[in-house]
Amino acid sequence: MEPEKERTGRTPKKGRKRRRAPNKPVGASEVMRDRWDLEERQQPEAKKARLSAVLFAGNREITHGQLCELLKRAVLGKFSVPKPSGCQLFHQNHLNNVVVFILQGMSQLHFYRFYLEFGFLRKAFRHKFCLPPPSSDFLADIIGLQKKQIIGDLPKEMEGSLPSSSSEVSINLQNDPIVQKYGSKKVSLTRCLLTKEEMKTYHFPLQGFPDCENFVPTKCCGSVTDNSPLFGLDCEMCLTSKGRELTRISLVAEGGCCVMDELVKPDNKIVDYLTSFSGITKKILNPVTTTLKDVQRQLKALLPPDAVLVGHSLDLDLRALKMIHPYVIDTSLLYVREQGRRFKLKFLAKVILGKDIQCPDRFGHDATEDARTALELAQYFLKYGPKKIAELNLEALASHQELEAAGLEPKNTAEVVQQLNTSVLECLDSMGQKLLFLTREADATELSSSKNCQTIKCLSNKEVLEQARVEIPQFTFSIVQFSFEPFPPNLTEEMSKRMRIKWMEMSTVYAGPFSKTCNLRALKRLFKSFGPVRSVTLILETHQPHLCIQYEILEGAQLAIESLDGILVEGTCIKVQRPVTELTLDCDILVNELEQDSENQGTIYLSGVSETFKEHLLQQSSLFLGLEAVILPKDLKNGKQKKYCFLRFKTFGSAQRALGILTGKNWKLKGRHALTPRHLHSWLRGLPPESRPPGLRVIPPPSEQETLQMVKVDHPKIAAWRWGRKIGKLYHSLCPGTLCLILLPGTESTHGSLSGLGLMGIKDEEESNSPNKCL
After folding, report:
1. Where is the RRM domain positioned along the sequence (predicted)?
2. Which of 28, 124, 287, 677 has the least CB density, counted as fewest CB within 10 Å?
3. Residue 446 DSSP one-character state
4. Cα–chain-centroid distance for residue 74?
5. How far apart are CA 464 and CA 209, in angstroms?
6. Three-state DSSP class for 583?
7. CA 562, 563, 566 angle in degrees (round to 5)?
8. Is the pLDDT of residue 6 over 70?
9. Mapping DSSP to helix (H, G, I), strand (E, B) and coil, where does residue 658 land?
């Protein structure tokens, strides 16, 4: 028995200990903006390990580092490592094994180009995400074997604020998001200012935006230099019948002198004073007569032409003031954190400045104190530079607070840093387990020589597969790596062009014939009711006029075809169809398969939604049982909400019922089941635009020899079909409760890089008919 235990490193289940995730309270469905965030809503009767991921967030990319943290979390449990932003696990104690399949040489382009061939992968895995192009060693990145730099003790500013480091700790300064954005050298004041594009992205009030029509500009239009004055700003708000309104403003000049501190009487009826945050009560505000307009006039008079406002989440303060200011430093964005997360002001004040603010024994926040703190944080950044701040390892210190809150306080800060920089191998070793690594002999990496890794080198992908069937049940953590020849550069370029054109043609419809006296404006309005339109072109080459409508998204085009094809429009029966080319011949099959994609199951598309749609939906939420999330896309140029959305439901049945209600006479929306997986949107946006009119042939037909090559076994299309099926069979043999990841790492070459794609899921007990395979 002992030799077998040494070989596999598997601890018998009876003796294994895992931390239990605390129960989360049952809550109502949460509607979120601009992203799908499938949080746990209620406790199932029989708990199972569940995966939750951010499904729609910007570029929807999970970094290699975040992937590593997820894997460590799967090994060690909920509170052993910081929660990765972007994905998390629930009930890890019910997770039995982890299996990672790596398809080396494949990328997102492979997956989308051979979407129909990857049938099992797209139907079995609900969670899909983008991966950045691979580094020199993809495997080392996701396991945590990267090279580390050594730094000394933490600076004096932190002594006494958090457990200090008495020994050297390892961090990679080049990977710190602050260094990645600003570099390691000291930066100027103007470099710290938010650009206009950044202000758009983070919803700062800007001149000319429709939601800022009644906002007052500060009239600060002077030329900003590195010697321009800084002013710290903080506002407190209450909740009124019209939303959040200003109740206090504090402005602090350089040197810490408060130059303005005013209580403000809101214009509308107050429904919640938010006293625990603002410190404002009815008694305090009753005698106040200062209005918002009074404050706006004072602020305009106080600020010099080149004033720079500094605050923490300053966009909220400016919106409360209903004012527009062009020169801002936001400390929540200055101290950059991974994946768009932000450090709290209280945390930064403690670890950077060594001061306590917003103490629980105080009555609400002190706006003057918060404004002064934000100003001091900006001054510290300018004085010491990004490198010194990166050396503090803020992420580790924030993790220390998370662990402390969970009752698992580490001995010192160095221990927290060490946890962040621990590899998956070291995590397994601490649990008395080993990692199984199956790979071709020619593709062995430094992981193969690690002492806590059982490496089996094979001669071919076929042998890797055969060994995987035998060895995976013996290990709690396995990595199975298959290797494929990457596309040559010329083929990559050709395939990218084909994909770009294919999606454009699938999102384009031709409609007609129409009468020569047709109402063109009414027709445009009709077709736009099905979804956002890129262009509408009048075709006059035919006997009677036709229209060519190019939609932004596939759902709009499909809905137009299903709704209008064969109906009478202005007395004429029209036909609505896609252009027929070599790239759209299998379009009907592809649309059907897209609808059955696991990520689209339970998701519906709606067109014609207004800006108040979310509020109406919340008011009648009892009609929409099982609603998990709402995606309200915005225009990337002007920040306005678009007139379509996606609703995500727990089950297909819930989605079907909601679709019937929302497209009925009371809501008067147009909709259907979703077709485009969320991760596909960001990938398509990343492709260069194609200006060619749809339907025209620009790709020459393949020669006879090339056509014959298409049916050969080693062609990428055949490889995608064969290996998708083989991995599917292996997946079905896995133990129930296995976290499974399929990673297409992407490719890197001198001709350019292709980003990767990840698919993940947990094999449910109900999906397995072979319980005897779980050891």
Report:
1. 507-581
2. 287
3. G
4. 20
5. 58
6. coil
7. 85
8. no
9. helix
